[in-house]
Every structure is written in structure tokens, then in C-alpha cells.
Design a protein that fits this description.
With 676 residues, this protein is α+β, with helices and mostly antiparallel strands. The protein contains 16 helices and 19 strands. The strands form five sheets. Strands 4-3-7-6-5 form a five-stranded antiparallel beta sheet, sandwiched between helices. It has a five-stranded antiparallel beta sheet with strand order 9-8-12-11-10. The protein has a five-stranded mixed beta sheet with strand order 14-16-17-19-18, covered by helices on one side. Strand 16 and strand 17 form a beta hairpin. Helix 4 packs antiparallel against helix 5 and helix 11 runs antiparallel to helix 12. The protein is flat and about 155 Å long. The two termini are 60 Å apart. 23% of the residues are buried.
Length: 676
């Protein structure tokens, strides 16, 4: 709904219509001004007097509290604070004596050594703003043991030493310690390191019973009085400033009050103009629903004469005669607003041209600022036909859009299903292609030892025939027989080695191929299985000059060896095609280890590495930097899925362009069962 803002309504509450009803009677317009007149009679004194007198009284009370209550307590507070500080400092110095005494008790120091160290430490201690405050030590017989500023007294008996007023303060130190163990003593003494200046001093002394010593330090009364005087002067300056500011603010308040009166009168005129020029109709009602004010927009919209409408109930006017349901709705809204709640609703009506118009109407109570009682009711309304039509059209568009979205969603779901099937087929093709490459490589590897075996056997067969011929002709010699034995041994050894190599290749291929095709879960040794995988994949890199090495500990797994075979095949292929594309004699290191109950495979190469863009997208399906060379972009996606889903582990890749790539694969030693 479009309506007056809060500020405008507040102005209406203050300037347009005062409280319209009192004790059940409707007042005239002259009576409406009576509450304001009574306020003016009550506030009969000048504005400057009403502002200045309370301000001056408040400042005087503040000054009294400050000078006669707060300031006398400053010196006492400072003195108490100083006493507590000195007491704490003496206690801290006393603990040094206790520490040296403990060393004596433990036998680490003799008593003379302990006392000498204690005196050295205590005499070097300083504190205070000028770092000139100190500690002294005397025994209970009055012998001065340590005094930083009076070395002439050290070693002397000062028990009956008197200050400038004749007080035997050393004797009082001893008596205080003997009676209470510790306490304060007042006397006259030189100002720190200045013997020419004698001032009042309060010292705290504490006895150290094991050695019969008394340690003390003091505060100067003149220092406390100087600080108190400084605070009094600072407070005096602040008070003067506050009084000046207070007086200035009082004068400003008087000036602003006069200015506010002028502004208030202008605001009344302004609001009256706004009230009548706003695009929405506004009607001011008494709390019982009687019309008190109507703006110009309401008359333009509904017609009528002001004299025929003022003093009537809103829902009983001729405006709503053709619309009985609106009269009922307005009556409910007024009753609700009278109880203190705002009501808002829409209604439709036909204008003079038989066109449907939609109105947004609200009835809101306005409370008196002081008493909190309902002062009047504000009825506001605005023609929202264009907005309503736009909302209807938007609703129809949303429904049509929702239908389109549903149809599009179904099409996308179908496309997604088809894409997933295609992806699964591509992944399977990638897997079979990997297996096909494995078969081709192993076949090539087997051909070499088998060829050597056939050649060696043929050569041996030829030598046997030659030996038989000599034997039949009885021309065989000892040298011929020895040469035949030597050749036979070499041929047999060569054939056995190559046939054994072929057998190992076939065994590894059978195991790896079976694992890759069956995807079964079984127990196996990780490092040994990686050796078998590399043996099967040797044809991929044997002529490239690259070196692949396996390190680490043997780890027994209960997992899916076929998945590990596919992972290592793709990682090796990825390193050879991308990492070593422009490099010869590259190195690949595979390391196995245990960490937190997991088996860790670290696959590292010293190839070209990857930039940040490629590193972020390495596991995305169909992402490849070799698209023009036939790359499908599924290899690392397959690796990611096998590690995370099949093996239940994690894979992390770190790479720096020009410095190689490292894959860290962490898998559980007991892989989760994958029944699917």
C-alpha cells in the first residue's frame, strides 16, 4: 500500500487534528485547540527561564559534590593507594630474603653467602617514577645493614637515631616488628638521594625472623600532596570548561527553542499542503470513527461536500452506500483500530466508466505521546489498479513459466540420463582400452624372451645334430665334446632365463588382467602388487629412457586390486604423455607408507608440472589439454572416482609448473565393500 510515511503521520497527529473526543462528547473545532491552550497556560514563563534555571542548578549541585565531597577524598585515596603499593613492594623484597634463606637451609649456600647475596640484590632495587625509591635493611639491634643513599650509616648502630622532630624512628621500626611483625611508621627523612631536603615520610617495615632483620621502604607525603593538588587543579580546569560549555548549551537551547517555535508554525502550513496534495486519500477519524478531517484527494476521488461528511461515521457516509460489503468491512476495520490494532485490506469497485478499480485501504490508530491513549484514527487509501493488474499478469506469466520450466526440466533430466549413460560407456571404453593396451604391451614383452628361447633352442638342436654326426662317424674328439658341453650349458641357461622371464610376465599379466576385469575384493600385499603392475606396464616406458622406482614398506590390504591397477595405469600414462612430453630421462617415484591407519601411495614425477588453471580442473570429466591429439579427458576422472568411491579414500594433487607433480593417495587398509 502507498501511504504517508511515519514522519508525515506524526506531523498530522501534532498539527492537523488534536484529540477530538473527551468524556464521550464530540468537540467543536474551537474546543479542539483547548488542550494546547492549557499547555501554554501551564508553560507561562519565558523559554530562556525554563531552560537556564534547571541548567544552573544542576551545575551548582555538580560543583558542590565535586569540591566538597569528591576532592577531600582524593588525598585519602592516593595515600591508601601508596600505602598498599609500598606494602606490596616490601613484601616482594622480603620474598628475596626468603629465597636466599631457603638456599641456606638446603645447604647450597652458607649463611654468610646467603645474606651477602640478599643484601646485594636488595640494595640494587629501585622503583618509582624517577627510579629513585629504594629499600633498606637493619637488624633488630639497630645495626644498619644496607642503605643505598646513606652508606655512611651501614655498619653503625642507629637504634636511637632521631629525625628533625626528635622522633627515634629506628627504635619504632624495631618495636613495630616485634609487636606486629610488620607495620607503618611516620617520621621525617631526606628526599630520596637529596640529603639537603627533609620531608615527612611514611615507611612500611617487615621483620625477617630467621636472620633477625628488618626490611623497609617508604612513601613521601609531599609526593602524595603534590599529586592530589595536581588532580584538584585538573578538575578545576575541567569544571570551568564544563560550566562554560553548560552555559553555552543553555543559550543555544534557548535560541533553538525560539527557532523551533518558528519552524513549528511553518511545518503546520507545510503539512497542510502535503496533506491535501498527496496522491492517496486520507481521512482523520475520532477514536469512535467520527470523521474530523478529509484531504482534497478523497473529495476528488469520491466526491461529496465537506459539510455533509464531517461529524459522521465513516462507514455511514454516502461514499459506501452502493457497496454494502465495504461498509461492513470498514466498520470492522474501525473497531479493530479502536482497540489499538492496524487493519489493512483491498477492495474492488467500478468507476463512472464501469471500469474495475482496486483500492488499498488501511485504518491505523495514532496514540498520544504522553498518555499513550488513542488520539485519533488515520484512514489511508490508494488506487492500486495498475499494480493489481500487473501482479495478475505476473502471476499468469509465472504459471506459464513454471509449466515451461517443468517441461524443460523433464527434457534436461532425460538428457542428463542419456549423458550419464554415455559417460559410463566412455569410462568403460577407457577401462577396456587400458586393458587392451596392457594386453598389447605384455604380448610385446613376452615375444622377446620367447624369441630368444626359440633361437637358443634351435642353435642347441643344430649343435646336437653336429655332435651326433661326429659320434656316428667316430670322429669325435675330447675338445669337440667339451665345446659341445659348454655350448649346451650356455644355451640351456639362456633358454631357462628367458622362459622364466616369460612365465613371470604371463603370471603378472594373468593376475593384473583378472583383477582389472573382475573388480573383486581380496587380500594382497600393496608393494608387491605395485611391482607386478609395473612389470606388466614396462612396455609403456622401457624405450623412453624414463625411470620408475618403487620404495616404501609392505602393507597388507583387503581391497580392490583392479582399481589400484587402473589408478596406476592412468597416473603412469598421464605422466608419460603430459609430464614427460618434452623431457627425456624423467624419473617417477612411487612410495608406500602408513599414516593414521591408512595406506598412502605417493606418486611423484619430475616432469613439466601444471599451472593453477589445469590443477583446479584436473579431475573434471572430459577435461584434457590433448584434445587435438585424441585425448578423451577421462583418465584422471576415472582415477578420482576409483579412489573416492571404490577404495573409500582420498586423492590430493600438488604441482608447480616446471617442477613436477605429486599425487598423494590415501586409502583404508580394509576397503569398504562395494556390492554394486
Amino acid at each position: 500500500m502507498y501511504c504517508l510515511n511515519e514522519k508525515s503521520r506524526d506531523i498530522a497527529a501534532f498539527f492537523i487534528i488534536p484529540r477530538q473526543e473527551e468524556r464521550g462528547r464530540i468537540k467543536s473545532k474551537e474546543q479542539l485547540a483547548m488542550p494546547q491552550n492549557r499547555k501554554k497556560q501551564i508553560i507561562s514563563r519565558p523559554l530562556w527561564f525554563r531552560v537556564a534555571v534547571p541548567t544552573v542548578i544542576s551545575l551548582l549541585l555538580f560543583c558542590y559534590a565535586l569540591f566538597f565531597i569528591h576532592f577531600p577524598s582524593i588525598k585519602t585515596s592516593l595515600m591508601d593507594h601508596k600505602r598498599a603499593a609500598v606494602k606490596n613492594l616490601v613484601q616482594a623484597a622480603w620474598s628475596i630474603l626468603e629465597e636466599q634463606y631457603l638456599l641456606e637451609k638446603k645447604g647450597q649456600l652458607s649463611r654468610d653467602e646467603a645474606q651477602r647475596q640478599a643484601l646485594g640484590i636488595i640494595s640494587s632495587l629501585r622503583y618509582g617514577n624517577e627510579n629513585k625509591d629504594y629499600f633498606w635493611i637493619n637488624d633488630q639491634n639497630g645495626i644498619m645493614l644496607s642503605h643505598p643513599y646513606r652508606p655512611d650509616l651501614v655498619g653503625s648502630n642507629v637504634l636511637h637515631m632521631q629525625d628533625s622532630r626528635g622522633k627515634q624512628f629506628i627504635l619504632e621500626f624495631v618495636q613495630t616488628v616485634k609487636k606486629k611483625g610488620a607495620g607503618f611508621v611516620e617520621y621525617m627523612w631526606q628526599w630520596k638521594d637529596d640529603p639537603a631536603r627533609v620531608v615527612p615520610k611514611i615507611s612500611y617495615v617487615k621483620g625477617f625472623r630467621p636472620w633477625g632483620w628488618i626490611i623497609g621502604s617508604g612513601l613521601y607525603v609531599d609526593d602524595v600532596e603534590a599529586q592530589a593538588q595536581k588532580q584538584v587543579e585538573e578538575f578545576g580546569a575541567v569544571i570551568g570548561f564544563v560550566l562554560s560549555i553548560g552555559f553555552l548549551l543553555a543559550m543555544i537551547s534557548v535560541w533553538q527553542g525560539k527557532r523551533a517555535d518558528r519552524t513549528l508554525a511553518a511545518s503546520r502550513e507545510k503539512f497542510q499542503a502535503i496533506f491535501n496534495q498527496t496522491f492517496q486519500f486520507i481521512v482523520i477519524l475520532s477514536p469512535s470513527g467520527i470523521i474530523q478531517e478529509i484531504n482534497k484527494t478523497a473529495f476528488e476521488f469520491y466526491g461529496g461536500i465537506e459539510e455533509d461528511l464531517l461529524g459522521k461515521r465513516l462507514f455511514e457516509t454516502t461514499w459506501w452506500s452502493p457497496v454494502p460489503e465495504m461498509r461492513k468491512r470498514l466498520s470492522e476495520a474501525v473497531n479493530k483500530a479502536t482497540s489499538g490494532q492496524m487493519d489493512r485490506f483491498e477492495y474492488k469497485r467500478s468507476d463512472s466508466h464501469e471500469d474495475m478499480r482496486v483500492m488499498d485501504v488501511s485504518v491505523k490508530p495514532v496514540h498520544d505521546y504522553e498518555s499513550g491513549e488513542i488520539e485519533y484514527l488515520v484512514v489511508e487509501g490508494r488506487d492500486i489498479t495498475d499494480k493489481w493488474n500487473a501482479e495478475q499478469e505476473l502471476r499468469w506469466l509465472n504459471e506459464e513459466l513454471e509449466m515451461r520450466v517443468q517441461a524443460r526440466t523433464m527434457a534436461l533430466e532425460k538428457s542428463l540420463s542419456s549423458l550419464k549413460e554415455t559417460q559410463d560407456q566412455l569410462v568403460e571404453s577407457e577401462k577396456m582400452a587400458s586393458l587392451g593396451g596392457l594386453v598389447a604391451g605384455v604380448a610385446h614383452e613376452i615375444n622377446t624372451p620367447l624369441g630368444i628361447g626359440v633361437t637358443t633352442t634351435s642353435y642347441l638342436d643344430q649343435k646336437i645334430d653336429e655332435m651326433l654326426e661326429k659320434y656316428e662317424n667316430e670322429t669325435i674328439t675330447r675338445a669337440d665334446f667339451e665345446k659341445f658341453l659348454h655350448v649346451s650349458k650356455e644355451s640351456a641357461t639362456s633358454s631357462l632365463l628367458n622362459l622364466t622371464r616369460a612365465s613371470e610376465l604371463i603370471h603378472s599379466f594373468k593376475q593384473v588382467a583378472a583383477d582389472q576385469s573382475s573388480e573383486s575384493r581380496r587380500e594382497f600385499e600393496l608393494k608387491s602388487y605395485l611391482d607386478e603392475i609395473l612389470l606388466s606396464l614396462h612396455s609403456m616406458y622401457k624405450k623412453s629412457g624414463h625411470e620408475v622406482t618403487i620404495y616404501g614398506e609392505e602393507i597388507e590390504l583387503k581391497s580392490y586390486p583392479g582399481a589400484i591397477m587402473q589408478i596406476m595405469t592412468n597416473l603412469l600414462n598421464n605422466a608419460l604423455q603430459h609430464g614427460f612430453e618434452e623431457k627425456k630421462n624423467g624419473k617417477i617415484t612411487i612410495t608406500t607408507s602408513r599414516r593414521d591407519g591408512m595406506a598412502v601411495i605417493k606418486f611423484a614425477d619430475d616432469g613439466a608440472g601444471m599451472n593453477e588453471y589445469v590443477l583446479k580442473r584436473i579431475y573434471e570429466p572430459f577435461f584434457t589439454t590433448k584434445r587435438s591429439q585424441g585425448g578423451a579427458g577421462l583418465g584422471m576422472h576415472v582415477v578420482y572416482n576409483l579412489v573416492n568411491r571404490t577404495l573409500g579414500g582420498t586423492i590430493q594433487c600438488s604441482s608447480t609448473q616446471g617442477q613436477g607433480t605429486v599425487f598423494n593417495i590415501s586409502i583404508p587398509v580394509d576397503a569398504p565393500r562395494n556390492d554394486t
